Structures are given as structure tokens and as C-alpha cells.
Amino acid sequence: MTTATNGGVSLHYQTDGDGETVAFVGDAGYGAWQWGWQHAAVAGPFESLVYDQRGVGRSDVPDGPYTVGELAQDLEVVLADHGVRKAHLVGAGLGGMVALQTALSSNRVASLTLVATAATGTGLELAPLHGHPDDREELRRTTEAALSAAFVERHPDVVDRIVAWRADEDASPRVWDAQTTATERFDASDRLYEITAPSLVLHGTADSAWPVERGRRLADGLPRGTFEAVDGAGHLVGVETSKDVNDRLLAFLEEHSDVEYL
Predict the structure, then answer these.
(1) pTM to 2 decimal places
(2) Is 2-125+172-255 assigned to CATH 1.10.10.10?
């Protein structure tokens, strides 16, 4: 585990594998556990980089509210600390917004994979996804809310493991408020045309928190955007359908690898 610093805020990250860097950008409130189904799949042909956003895991917890701009600066600092000139960004929820902002504000983006996210946070109701890390019943209820009912019924053991990881890594209510404020205030709808990086938008059709229609509109607004629905999956689409998501992600990354770094 390595630490980068942005204005006195320590940000912890870890890497694995070789090749072009694939940086995973986390959703509101969640620790790095959320990428446990993806980062190992890309490590090998690519280098995976997973970091804790400010407020979660082993990163510092500055006072909020936060902005997506600040979170994008954090990501750029992590990439710079690791010596990455360009990275393929994979962002979920709030992390997708951070990836979009990074593409707008820097030249470090080789490609974007945007998972269960949107161009604007206006009107989203995210409260059903957050559970207090000290309340296991609440964590279970909010974990189930992020998954389809069919997955919860088939895989109660996976739900158990996620609840345990969330108790160790997830954001406190104070940080949840700071991060969701960033989500609610973000709106890149009128600037998507500026993002020229190839972009894959993946979205579960049963996502009750981030409606799938928002993913479709996001892809439509990106000049090089492609939308792919994952039938029946909830918000944690990378958990529910990890093999399918990983196959799509790797195919996209391989298609857009060997980027010429100018």
C-alpha cells in the first residue's frame, strides 16, 4: 500500500500487474472492497490501481462537503504519484462522475468505463444504499438494496461477506453526506461533448438507485460513448455479474490499449 498526498490529505492506493494502468474509482460510501471482482481480472495484461477515496478505507477523512472537482484532483495526484501519464479509468456511481470530471480537466485519460453512473446527480435518491458501519442489520438491508432480489436469494454468502467488508471499510455518516453532496451537485450534461476518450457505459437494468435511463443518456451524450445494459442486475452490477462485466471490460480495454502517449 502506497500513500499520495493532496493538500495534506493522504490517499492510500495499491497496484498489481504490469502494462497500461487501469485505475478503479469508487462509488459513494464504499471502500475498495467493491473492486474485488474486477481488479484481479485486469492485473496481468494491465496494471490495476485501486485507491481509497478521501473519507473511506485508509485514506484521510477531511471535513466535507466534498466536490467532484476535489475528488478528481485526488485521483490525478494518485496517478502522478505513481508516475502514470495516462490511465484507463473505471468508475462506479460517484466514481464515474469523478472519471468524467478527470476527462474534462486533464489529459491523463486513455479511456473511460462508466459503471452504474450518470452525467448529473440531480434528483437521485441514494439514501437506501448507505448503512452505518456499526449497524450490521442496516448494512445488510442497504447491501440487498444494491443487488437484485434474485442475486440475494441465490448468494446469501456473498451478501454476508460484503456486509463484513463494509463494516471495516465503508464511510461514516459524515463522510457519506460529504460524498453524496458532491454527487448531487455534479452536472456535466452540457459538457459531455468535450470528452473525446472512448467510453463504455455499463448499467444494470434493475438498478433502483441510479436508473438505467441515466446511463443511456450518458452514453448518448459522449462523442465516443457506447451503452451496454446488463439485464436484471442491480446497482452493484460488477458483483452480480462479475464474469460478464469483466469480459466486457477486458474486451474494451484491449480494443483501446497501446495508446500513443503524446
Answers:
(1) 0.96
(2) no
